[in-house]
Structure formats: structure tokens, C-alpha cells
Amino acid sequence: MQNKTIALFPGQGSQFVGMGKDLLDNFKIAGEAFEEASEAVKKDLKKLCLEGPESELVLTENTQPCLLVTSVAAFRVMVKETGFQPAVVAGHSLGEYSALVAAGALPLSTAAYWVRERGRAMQIAVPAGQGTMAAVMGLEDAQVSSLCEKATAAAKAKRAPGSEHSVEAVVEPANYNAPGQIVIAGSTDAVAEAIALIKAGGDFAGGKAIPLSVSAPFHCRLMRAARDRMAGLFSGAAPADQPKTPICPYIPNRTGRMTREPGVIFELLVEQVDHPVLWKQSMTHLIELGYTTGIEFGPGKVLAGLAKRIAQAAGGSLTVQSMGDSTQLKALSAQSGASS
């Protein structure tokens, strides 16, 4: 495999019951990854991934370690079977942890524990029903920023004096996924105001908003409590769990620019919790640097779809293939001339 290939790792939303089954059935190294992560979180992640039930798998504190270990297992299978080494790694939101594990910067066991705690902290940061998210389509970045400002002001104005609200009235961009596709997050009333503004047309004519079925408003200022929780965990990390220099550059969600500096990893992971995911910016940066191929490790093909849209807008080319089972592994091996 040419050493100009990006290793990509998906975030929450890519999970499904049965993910990882083929790799677990066929490769011992995949099972070893699941055993390591399961021991760290004191939960049978293999059983949860393979059998569910879905109602448990979709709980944020379960989804995050399950996606992490499934993605890392797929990556380790690829490395062992083909000798693959990425030129750079990147992960969407939770996937940033998977990318750092794959690059040797973080141990899998500790990362599994951290993302479980990250999921718990995100879930309890905002009371149920008080926060939500929506996908906004068809608007430019500046329009979405304006939309959020106006929706926030409208929500604040409509709150009666002295009324009791447990969270601030606010909505902000949360995920810059691709050109014309931005996810917003915030208080339920502010997100509702944003959706209403889009439906009304005016400055936001041509836009479309789709409410998302999520348990919390991720990647916005309402996640401050979760950010503080992660900062506390990292500050108490044992020497063996301190970030190591990655074997290749990685792209933090917070900056959208490549780095190999281990000293910034914890800081950027903390900031990622309550700041937007700069995925479009990250992929555009790689395209501008001449990267044209990527492999998405783990379940689904979400990142492959986003890469196509980003590349088209950037006037470049970025083809992303999937690596989540033995059939896909054989196809990738055949393309690279490696034997599986």
C-alpha cells in the first residue's frame, strides 16, 4: 500500500448491531483488541457489538468504546495482513481517539476507558430534552454562523423573565462535515428557532434543516461539564498513558492541520468536546497537500461519502475505500499487490 494513504476513523452514528463480526470470526488479532478494550471498561464489548441490543449499543457511553475498538481492530487486521502503514491519520469526533490509538500515540485500553467516560460525561452534561442537534443543508458556513446567532437571540428573547431553564439558550455550529452540510447543536429551543428561520426563507432561502435523533448537543458550549471531566481525567493520567509521538502525523478535529506533537494531544482532545469538528477543513487541507486516497476503518461508509463531496468542492480528488470485513480487506490487498 502506497505511503500516501490516509487512515480515517468514523465517529458516533456509524454503529450497528453486528459490526466487527467478520473480522472477529476470521482474525485473532481482532479478538485480542476486543479483549483488551473490554477489560479496560469492564464490559463485554464483543457481545454488545455482535448481539446488542440496539437500545444498549446506542447509549453514548457504550457506543463510543464499541466504535473505538471496532475501528482499531479493523486497522490492526489491515496492518498485520498487508503491512499497511498510513501516511496520516484522522478521525471524526470520537474517531480522533481511534486515529491516535492506530498511530501509537495512545494505548487502546486507556483510550477505551477514556471514551466511555467521555460518553457518560457528554450524556449528563445537559439534562434529557434540554439539548439537541440538527443537520443544516444547502447553506454556506457564514450563513450558518448568522443563523445560529439569530436563533440564539430569538430563543433568549422568548424565554420569560424568571423562567427556569437548566441550560443556556444557545445554538452553534458543531460539525463542519462537508460543503453545504453542517450540524448545529444547542438548547432545544434555540435549535427549534434555527429550524424555523430556515423554513421561513429570507436570508436562509435554499437551506434545509433535519432534526437529529441524538441524546445530547455535542460539540457546543453546553458540553463544558464534559470538557472539564476529560481535562480531569487527562491531568491524572499515569506516565504509561501519557501521549507518545505518533508514528505518522494526525489531524486534530480542533485545528484541521497536521501535527505530530504529543504535547498538544490532551489539550486538543479536551477542547474538541465543546468546540466544532472541523472535518471539512481537515480533508480540504489533505487534498491541498496532494493526498488522493484514504481507507475508512470501521463500520459504515460515512466518511467516504463526505470525502467525495469535499473533494468535488475543493477541485481535487480523494477516493476513500472501506475496511470493515475480510472481503474489503482482500480487495484492498489485491489493489496494493499485497497477499492476504
Structure description:
The chain is of the alpha/beta class and 340 residues long. It has 2 domains: 5-124 and 223-336, Malonyl-Coenzyme A Acyl Carrier Protein, domain 2, CATH 3.40.366.10; 129-214, Alpha-Beta Plaits, CATH 3.30.70. The protein has helices spanning 21-26, 28-41, 45-51, 54-57, 60-82, 95-102, 108-125, 141-158, 188-200, 224-235, 265-273, 279-288, 302-314, 326-336; strands at 5-9, 88-91, 131-137, 171-178, 181-187, 208-212, 250-251, 293-297, 319-323. The strands form 2 sheets. Strands 7-2-1-8-9 form a 5-stranded parallel beta sheet, with helices on both faces. Strands 4-5-3-6 form a 4-stranded antiparallel beta sheet. Helix 13 (302-314) links the parallel strand 8 (293-297) and strand 9 (319-323). Helix 2 packs antiparallel against helix 5, helix 5 runs parallel beside helix 6 and helix 7 (108-125) packs antiparallel against helix 10. The model has no long low-confidence stretch (mean pLDDT 94).
Any key phrases for this structure?
340 residues; alpha/beta; Malonyl-Coenzyme A Acyl Carrier Protein, domain 2; Alpha-Beta Plaits; 5-stranded parallel beta sheet; 9 strands
Helix/strand-derived class?
alpha/beta
Number of H/I helices: 14
Note poorly predicted spans.
none
- Computed over alpha carbons, the radius of gyration is 20 Å
Q: In which order are the strands of the major sheet placed?
A: 7-2-1-8-9
Helix content: 40-55%
* The CATH class of the largest domain: Alpha Beta
Mean pLDDT: 94
Summarize the main sheet: 5 strands, parallel
Topology as a string of helices (H) and strands (E): EHHHHHEHHEHEEHEHEHHEHEH
CATH architecture label of the largest domain: 3-Layer(aba) Sandwich
Global geometry: globular
The number of domains: 2
Strand content: 5-15%
What fold name goes in the CATH topology slot of the largest domain? Malonyl-Coenzyme A Acyl Carrier Protein, domain 2
How many beta-strand elements? 9
